Structures are given as C-alpha cells and as structure tokens.
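Deliverable D5.2: sample structural annotation.
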Amino acid sequence: MPELPEVEVTARALGQRFEGCRIESVRVHEHRLRWPIPRQLPLLLQGQTITRIARRGKYLLWHLPEGVLISHLGMSGAWRIHESGAVPGRALHDHVEVLCDGALARLNDPRRFGALLWHAHADGDILAHPLLADLGIEPFDPRFDGAWLVAATRGRQMPIKQLLLAGTAVVGVGNIYAAESLYSARIHPLTPAGRIGRVRYERLAAAIREILAMAIEVGGSTLRDFSSVHGVAGRYTEFARAYGREGLPCPRCLAPIRRLVQGQRATYYCPRCQRR
C-alpha cells in the first residue's frame, strides 16, 4: 500500500505538472472503486483550474475553485502523467483520465481499493471531511515531538508499532517506516506505547521525520505495485537497516535481525539494540 512518502512523491509530481492548468475533460471508465466515483464528476471538474495539489495523510487533495477532489491510492493505485504526443493506449486498470493543457493524468488501480471523491466548498472545510477529520498530526508539523507522543499515548497498552500504524497519534508511518523508525530509536516494537518515556519518544519523533524525509527523497518504497507518476520504482528499501533483513547482521551491533508478525504485518527488529 502506498504510504506517506509514496503519496507525497505523487503529490509533488502532479502539482509540478498540473497546478495552474485548466481541466479540459475527465473520462471515467470504471466507477466502482472503494466508494463509487460520482457520476457527475466529469461535469463538475471540466473547465476548473487546478490551484494546488497537496497531501493530508495518505490522501491527495486536488484544490479547485469550487471544491476539492479527494484521491486515495488504496492498495495498488497510482497516477501516471503522459504528455501530449506520447500517450500510450489505455491499460486494463486505467479507470480515470484527466486531460489538462494537453497532458493526461491517468489513475490506475488494479484492486480498486482506492477512491476518487468530490467535496464542494459549500459542504464545509475539507479538513473536516469524515475521511480526514480524525487523522493524527503530520510528522513534519513543528508541533510533532516527543512531548506530543507522550500526550498521545498515556494509558495506552497497545504495542507502539501498532499504534504508529493506526495513524491516530501521527499519520503516514506505514509498516516499513514504523519498523525502521523503531529500530533507529532503539525501541522494541512490542513495547506498550504508554510505557515509553519522553526521552525515547524524542528519539522516535526525530527518527520518524528523518526516515520519512529520506524515503521521499528516494521516491518512496516499491514492494509490489507502487511506482511514481513516470513509472519509476521507489528505492527506500535499498537503504533499510532492519526491514526485510531477517537473519542478517544488525548494522549497529551485528546481532541477527529478527522478524515477528504483528496484526498480520511483518516487523523486523534487533533483539540486542531494541530490548523490551
């Protein structure tokens, strides 16, 4: 599933190409995503100018004069950009096409777990939308630090890895990045969140920001489906120090990296550096 770095990479590329562009037409070839794409969407979007493409959590927000187009990539979705004169034929899972100033943005989603919804300005603040209202703080928000994590986790017995994945304390720390952040901060993934103190949470907050920033820089992670708007795979897993390294020596202490399963997701950690 595309996580924060992959969505951020997509948002930046789409914004660079389409901000300020006028939507000439929209074609919806398959309405059946996680929630049905509104039938009136092509008429709503046609003629509007894209003022900004941003990200909130794992949602892409296309800001337009009359509202916001909400896009979620689900498990396997990806936007592709094709310039005029170099547009390939539509693939099987190309469900939506947005034509702007001669360039084409295509939404491909083989599993159809993604979403494409319209939120009119008349319906209120986009950040109050039901899909966005309960999301945690952004990891690059200046307020996000050890004190924030302490306040968000007091009394919580949920293992810290699971709490990070839940996205209520902080958004965007997906499975790979949670494992890597906990490794960097020397915190065992099964540690109850409420038992971690301020000093260790300061290390964790710093690790989350550092690892997500690096992942964005190298295009995110590609395990199965994700690639950029130009079809380029993400490279973060090449630099991972714990994730996917079961049995290999810890880069810090040389103890073999171990693997465990939490909530049906694989977790990798060093039993010596990340003691419970």
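Annotation notes: The chain has two domains: 4-128, 146-269. Residues 21 and 101 are 6 Å apart (CA to CA).
The annotation will be released with the project's public dataset once the embargo ends.
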